[in-house]
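User: For my dataset I need records formatted as: sequence, then structure tokens, nothing else. Please produce one.
Assistant:
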Amino acid sequence: MKKIVIATGMLFNLCCYQAQDTLQSRNLQKDLSLIRVDSTIQPKTPLFQKDWVKKSVAPALLFTAAAATWGEKENIREVRNRYLPTFKAKYDDYLQYAPAATVYGLKLAGVKGRNNLGRTTLSYATSLAIMGILVNSIKYTAKVERPDGSKNNSFPSGHTAMAFTNASFLHKEYGMVNPGYSIAGYGTAALTGLGRNLNNRHWLPDVLAGAGIGIISTELGYFFIDKIYKNKGDNLSLLSRVQGNDYPSFLALKMGTALGTTNFLKESDLDDKKQVGFEGGLEGAYFFSKKWGVGGDISFSSFPIKPLKASLEDDEEFGDYEIVTQSLGFLGAGAGPYFSHEFSDRWQLTVKATAGYSATAGGKVFIKSNSIDTPTHELPIAHYKPKPAFRWNTGTALTYKFNPGLGITLYADYNEIKSSIRYYFSDALEESEELNNEFNFVIAKEKINYFTLGLRLTAYF
């Protein structure tokens, strides 16, 4: 009996132990389960930080700009017709392919990009297929007449779509190797779009929409192929640093406000104020050391000329009137030495002095009065044509680097141009030999001096 009691007690203790052990195990499993569930709950990513939103921003802005400029496309073309009415250069037929050719050139040279050659080609082919479907389906549905009247397939621009598809292709493959590739690619694509406009083959909205289609096509092409490969690229682990020679060589896009320091048409008696305009362009330099290099820029500046108010004392035909002069536009290019000094890894100072060439667009001069019986109340009296002139430029720039390959630059430049402007007056003056000789050989020598203050997006290579 005693043995039975002892055995029963041992069995009871064993059961209690097992029950306690099971209870502890179940509680532990439950706790681990809760931990696993909690660990899968990720904080919500803000909308504007989501990857698809970031990739959609540029195309969305371009499509919005195309819609916003649609009603003004003919007025915008008049600017082209005024400055470069006879422009004809077919560089855009070939330049559109330059970024893609660069990708394959770098691949064949052994420069590692995001992907290996096979996957690169598959991503590119998919992007081209998407771009072709989008462009042609819209072209032959919208049936917009080209500005030169040749065909009804203007919108969107296929050349521009191809150029930006190729630029985005270069950016995808080599932008993380060095941002200079991205800047060069998109700069080339922008020049292609500009060429379509200057050659009078497309309206501005056509070019803007084509750029948006090109970018979104490449994003979609890479999205689908990345899903197939189940990663973002073949060589991402190898591209941990920006390649370069550690010198401050750069390529930049710039935009700024131009402030006149002289009255541009003072000698012509058509301007009594210092004008404010804008400047945009490309700038770059190659450095042979950490301090010294050579570089240059190509830029366009435009200055509106404010009307002059006047009145005729001896002749009341017009009464009070205004003399309206069309804006002055300068296309300049120059080259010269550059000096650089790094204050730290983040801050860099650049100083330059360049000399070069400036071409100035011609324009018209009107008398404007409510007494003039025309739809615009304007009467053309003359047109002017400046001669090409020497331009010298000096400036300084302060750059903040986001990383070794990309920075934002605040720049200040001073430009000086000595321009000779010849005036051709109305045909009515030709009826009088005396007036014709007096007025149609008027040449004014003007001093065009102005400061530019602006920003550059600077990519180092």
